[in-house]
Structures are given as C-alpha cells and as structure tokens.
Specification:
Elements: H1 8-14, H2 16-19, E1 23-27, H3 34-43, E2 49-54, H4 57-68, E3 74-78, H5 84-96, E4 105-108, H6 126-141, H7 143-146, E5 153-157, H8 182-208, E6 211-216, H9 239-248, H10 252-255, H11 265-268, H12 270-277, E7 288-290, E8 293-294, H13 309-323
Parallel strand pairs: 1-2, 1-4, 2-3, 4-5, 5-6, 6-7
Antiparallel strand pairs: 7-8
Helix pairs in contact: 1-3, 1-12, 5-6, 6-8, 8-13
Length: 329
Amino acid sequence: MNKDPRTASELAATYESQIKGKIVLTTGVSPGGIGAAFVLGIAQSQPALLILAGRNLAKIQQTADAISATGVKVRILELDLVSLASVRASAEKVNAWDDVPQIDVLVNNASVMAVDWARSPEGYDSQLAINYLGPFLFTNLIMGKMLKSPAPRVIIVTSDAHRLSPFRFDDYNFRDGEYYHKWLSYGQSKTANMLMAISLAEKLGQRHKLSAFSVHPGLVQSNLSSHLKLFGEDDSDMIPMRDIDRVMGNGIGWAGFGAVLPCTPEVGANVYVYGAFDPEVAAHNGCYLLSCRVADPWKDTVRPWATSSVEAERLWKLSEKLVGQEFVY
Ligand SMILES: NC(=O)c1ccc[n+]([C@@H]2O[C@H](COP(=O)([O-])OP(=O)(O)OC[C@H]3O[C@@H](n4cnc5c(N)ncnc54)[C@H](OP(=O)(O)O)[C@@H]3O)[C@@H](O)[C@H]2O)c1
C-alpha cells in the first residue's frame, strides 16, 4: 500500500529545480500504467528530454502525444526486454544518439506479472528475462551515457511481492519450466530488482556518484493484472499466491488484499519521483523505497534475501554469465 497520497505531479512541482533540464529515460510507459503517470507527472517541470521506451510503439506514441501538450521534447525508443538481442540493439541506438550526450535518470519500470510459462528467445523464464535480465543488460550497456551525468540515478521498480521468493540460484529457470510457478517467478524477479539496486550503488556510488534505488509503488490500478483473475467471485489466480504467503507465514496470506484499496497510477508514481529527484535520499544509496521514504524493515515488508550484499554480488556474477558479458566498474 502506498501511504503517501500525493500524486507524481504534486511531488514533481516540489522538485522542479531538480527536474528542470534533466534527460530521463523510462521503460514501459503505456497509457494507464505507472510509468506513463511518472513521465506525465514530471513533464510539467521542464525536463530537457523524456525518452520513452517500450515494446509497443503505438501505445508509447499515445503517451508521447499526451506529453507534447506540455512542450517538452520527447523521443521514442523501441525496446523489447524479453530478448537480449533486442535489448542490445536498442542500447546501441541510444549510444549512437549524438544529440543525447548523457542520461541523468533511468527508470526501469517495465514488467509483466504472473504470466504463464514462456521461454525467452535466449531460453530464460520470460518473467526473469523481461523483469530483470533485460533491464540488467540495458542499464549496463547504456552506463557510459549515464556516467556522463554529474549525479546519475537509476530507479528499479520492484514490489512487496519480493516477499514471495528469494533469488533461486540453483533453479532460477524452474527446471526449464517443469516446476514453474508464476508467482514464485514474479517474486524472484522482484527480489532481483532490489539486489540490482544494491549492486549498482556499491559498484558505482563512490567512484561515479551514481545513486540507485528500488521502489515499490504500492497496490496500483494499472494494466499489470489484466490477464489475471484476482478479485471478485473468481479469484483463481489469487489462490496460488495466497498459498505461498500462508506457507511462508506472511500475514497477508490470511488478511488478503480485500481491505487494501488500490491507488491511482498518478499516486503510485510518487515514489519514482521521490527516488529520482529527492536530494536527501541520495544518502541512502541502494535502498528500497516505498511511500516516498526509505523502507523500514521493522514495519514494512522487507525480506533479508532482497537486502543482502552477498546475494546481490552472487546475482551480479550470475547475470553476467546469463547475458554473456562482464560489467566491471
Ligand atoms: N500495479 C501494481 O499494483 C504494482 C505493484 C507493485 C509493483 N508494481 C510494478 O510497477 C511497474 C509498472 O507496472 P504497472 O502496474 O504500471 O503495469 P502496466 O500498466 O502493465 O505497465 C507495464 C509496462 O511494462 C511494459 N512491458 C511489458 N513487457 C515488456 C517487454 N517485453 N518489453 C518492454 N516493455 C514491456 C508494458 O508494455 P505493454 O503495454 O506493451 O504490455 C507496460 O508498458 C512494474 O515494474 C510492476 O512490477 C506494480
């Protein structure tokens, strides 16, 4: 749940001086989603350029059209995170844009949730590929451009669903789908998102002044669960998640989501604005943010497997192997 009721644009107004003149690249900005609400929210604060990345150009164009009313420059980037080859091609395009000398903020927002088993073109669980491996590769491939910024920031959108699974080092691909569980897979990918923020902060914080945060937007009405039956009379897709929560002893497994009202994408995106532009939060490099503050492991859902530097480094090494490239900073 997002306990801060401010909208992204309300928050953006307070950070206007930080947003003004910045170049911001955001993935997954289809209309109706949190990423779109983020870019629309900050557009009024005069960023120099908003780069909108996504797999469906027609949808991204709709968001671009909505931004154009503000007069802010927009550029569209085709990016399909499921395929490492496609990620490489998109990163090459960004790196070849001579008129975009630097990227100040990268928001890795795009994700799928609890989709049926599918193999990515390179043979990985598609949720792992889209939600984590693609963003890992993309971020590292455009890092040269990010490091041209005096104080670059990377936001990685995660979820309290990280509670559902640690990173499964011995079986991240669910025995090639044989033991696939769509909620464990989503949980694993969201844990990976948090670990990636820790690694980026540790590897690039001191020497390169880069900040990285994982952010949880709360329960938000968006397109993410449109393929699932979660609420109402038929909640058949909720049951396997509830079962994991009960097995793990998570209170939500009994309390359910019934009492939690989803917020709008405009409110969900407030924590993106906070992570990307708040000057004070930079002191908490690598942290997990929610409700426009640093998460409190005593009070919030924060699992130790998603905040461990050891797990983060193990994952970084494995990810290098899976994408076939080392990234040393
Ligand atoms: N909604 C919630 O309650 C909630 C809670 C916690 C965390 N989150 C996180 O918030 C973030 C945004 O989700 P949302 O709720 O705004 O969902 P959404 O409306 O479904 O937006 C997800 C975006 O990701 C894009 N995407 C999916 N697969 C992609 C791929 N292969 N390559 C490139 N882009 C791809 C989608 O593009 P298409 O439109 O083309 O499918 C869409 O633009 C996600 O990281 C999610 O895990 C959401």
